[in-house]
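C-alpha cells please, single chain.
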Amino acid sequence: MKSRLFCGASVLAAMCALGASPALAQDDQGATVSEVVVTGSFIAGTPEDAALPVDVIGADELQKQGSPTPVELMKGLTVSNGVIGDTNQFDGRAQGAEGAATVNLRGLGASRTLVLFNGRRLVNAPIGQGAPDINLLPGAAVGRLEVLKDGAAAIYGSDAIGGVVNFITRKNLDGLEISADYRGIKGGNGDYGGSIAWGHTADWGNVLLTAGWQHRSELNVRDRDFATGPYQDNPESGWSSGGNPSTFLPLGPAPAPAPPGFFAPVAGLQRDSGCAALGGFPGFAAATTPACFWNYTPYDNLVEKEDRWQIYGEVNYDITDDVQAHLEGFYSETDTPEWKTSPSYLALQVPTNVTNPTANTPGLNAGYFVPATNPGYIAYRAANPTQLPASAVGAYFPGSLFRPLGLAGNPLWDDKSSRGSRKYEAYRLSGSLTGKFENGLGFDLAATYMEDNLVRIGYDTVVSRLQLALRGL
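Here you go.
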C-alpha cells in the first residue's frame, strides 16, 4: 500500500501550506527572534493575538512533559479526542493500521484535522482514517507545536474543519544534544528510546541534523485484570458468539418434492456440549439462537511491540537580507513485527458450490458442512446421541457462528495467538524560497514530495480448502 503527496509552487502562499505567516514571537528555546511561522492566518501577529485560538507549546514545555512522543502529546491535549496510536485492532476506524497514530481535534474525526510539518502538508497514511501518521515525524527535530483549536476550512480546506496541528522544527540549536529515556511499565519490559541532534547557526542561516529511535514493548491483555472478565460482568469485553466450539444444525436429505442433493434440518440449532468445559460461556445470540460465547481478547495485545526510527536534516540559507531558502528532508520507519490477534476470524466467506454440498439448498448456502463420515462427527454423536439423530447425514455450521480456530488457539504459534506484521516506510523532501520585494509584497515558492508505504501481513482461512478438509478431502 502506498500514499504519495506532491505539491508545486505558488506566489504569496505555498499550495501545500496555506496560512503560514511571519510574526514576532518566542522561538523554541525561549529567545526573541524576528520571525516565526504562525498557523491559521495570513495576517502578521503573534498566536496569542490571533483571531483564531492557537496554542503554542515550546521546547521548554515539551521537556517538562518528559519529551513526549507526538501521539503522547496529542493524548494530553484537552482539545484532542479519540486519538488512534496504541493497538488499533479494538477500534473499527483503524483496524489494520497498527503502528500508526493520528490527530483528532474536537472529536470530528482524524480526516478533519489538518496536520502540517513546518507549515507544509503531510501525505495521508496508506490505511486508516484518511489522515497523516504522526508516528513518522522526527520528534528530536521538533521545537514547537502550534495547535489551531478552531475550524480553519476557509483557509486550508475541508480537512481543517476540526483544526490544525503544525509541528515546527528547531531553528537555534548550536552544538550537539544527546538524550535517552526509559519508562517502566508493570507487566511489560518498558518503553525506551534515544535521540541525537546537531545544529549549527551562522550569519548565513542554520543547519539541523537529528536521528531518533523509540521502542515500545509488548503488553498483553492478560497483563491487566481490568481488560478481561466474566461474560456476566461485561458481555461487551471481547466476547463473541462466533467461535469454536460452535453452533450446528443437524441435516438429513430433503423430502420430495425437493430435488436430489438438497438437505433439510432434522433437529433445531444445537450448541456444542463441550462449550463450558473448554472455557466458553453457553448463551444465546440474538436472544433465541444457542451459542458458545468465547473471549478473544486474551489473544490480543494492549500495546504491540514497535520500533520506530527517524532521520531528519534541514538547511536554512539567507540568499539576501530579504530572500531565504529552506530545504528539509526526513526518512522514517515504523516496524510492528509481531502484531497479535485472535486465533482465526469468523468464516463468513462462502465456500464454492463445488466444495460445499449444501450450497444449492436455500438457507444453507452461507456456512459449512461436516458429513456423518467425519471421525469427529462420529465421536461426538456417540457421546451426544440426542443432539445428532440417527437420520442425520451431517451437520451444518452457520458461518456467522463458526470460526476454524477458537478456544484452543492457533497451533501455528506457541502462545496460540495468530500473528501478523505492519511496516511503514516514509520519506519526504520539501524546499521553499521566501522573501519580499522592494514594495513590501511577499512571496513564498515551495515544493513538497512525500511517500508513505505500508507492508501489512496477516493470515486468514482459504474457505473452500477448509470445507474440503471438513469433508475429509
